[in-house]
Amino acid sequence: MTVMFYIALALLSLAIGCFVYRVVKGPTVADRVIALDAIGICLAGIVAVLSILLETSVFLEIILLIGILAFLGTAAFAKFLQKGVVIERDGNH
Amino acid sequence: MAGALLTLISAIGVLRLPDVYTRSHAISKSTTLGMIFILMGTLFYFWLKHDHFNSRLLLAIVFLFLTSPVSAHLISRAAYYSGVRPWEGTVRDDLAERRENRTKSAE
Would the keyword Glycosyltransferase be found if you checked this record's keyword annotation (chain A) (predicted)? Predict the structure, then answer.
């Protein structure tokens, strides 16, 4: 049964390799951002499989943290792509 | 034990990505499904085998399920408004008609 987890780990690493290729070679900035988001989510999955393999449940908060960070990064990049700045200013001050 | 099977299925689902990874939507959806499978597998593993129900994992599943479409929509909207047009380099045939409809409706 442990072999299945190792196979899953290898497949996830392969997926991350494909995403890294997309980040390096991506034709547009949006592709790169999407691939970075997917890398973050895959990293959360790797942490989950690793916590099963190591029989500990202390890594499971990290999954939530990685998910939140990936979403925040993608949202900030989307704002930056659309408007050029991350934090808007009104110009009154 | 249910976790192992689900994790393997989801890893194969994640491996499906190299076929469609030019499409940002496809990446987002397939990765979300695979990750939800993996996290549910982990949840059931710790629940059934160690009698330890982890609520943070459930929270992570819900959060991922909520934010992944939102982030995909945000990034594609930003790409459209910045004039990047990320769907111009794709070669898939079944998306071409949809793409034309989309650009037509956008014009």
Answer: no
